[in-house]
Specification:
Elements: H1 7-23, H2 28-32, H3 34-54, H4 58-67, H5 73-90, H6 98-105, H7 110-118, H8 124-143, H9 145-164, H10 177-181, H11 183-206, E1 209-211, E2 214-216, H12 218-241, E3 246-248, E4 251-252, H13 255-258
Antiparallel strand pairs: 1-2, 3-4
Length: 259
Amino acid sequence: MLDYKKSNKTGAKIQNLAQALEDIQVYDAIERSVQIKHNIKETQARLRHMVRIMALKKQILINIAMISDFSYAWKAIDGFIPVIQREIGQKPETVLRLKTVFSKLASIMNVPLKRIIEYNSEDTRAVAKYYSGELVKFVKRTLSIIPTNIFEKLREISVILTKNVKEMETKMLKETLKDFACFEDRYTLAKRTHEVSMLTEGMLVLDKTLMGVIEIDPKEILVDGIRKELGRTLAAMLHEGFIFSKRHLGEVETLESKF
């Protein structure tokens, strides 16, 4: 029976177990079995890891808590938004790792709330809600780059499909097949399509996450972001496209012709 509260005795027992596993390897039945030898090696490695854990002193745990303390991040997190957004733009698969970042970020509230909870203050919930709201704002600002990136890649896809890649004919000569292949354009098309799917998949994988006392749904953030980006894109198209001029004397372009 191993009892972590009695670290010295438990450590000695674990070392004896590791030595016993070392000693039994001389038997022929074990020596001939690769699977058994592999299992013994794994067990010994885990036992050595347990010994190291048993040797941890209280001061080491205090030091780890101080080093991993994230409360200072209120001053630093805004500077990381462009860094994270740049990484998402260059490597869309980065979105899949954001859930871990946001979960860790929630520990930023521990220090501001600790003393209030110890004091049994009635303001605990109000303070928690305020800090949670700040975290949600950070998450929304960080994820706002995803709809922007999606529309940028869709614009590139649209150009490739409408201008670069020709539509295949039902019948064509073997000599002209190369003209329709457009290998580089089709590679870029596949790459951009994959990047769009990675961005959307990353948002959907995040699932509902608690930021303090407020639950956020990344799917809603994605939908809102796409709506804003769609509105921005339409506004730019209308601003650039609906410019009327007199083509001939007395003849003005109509709204219908612009559409």
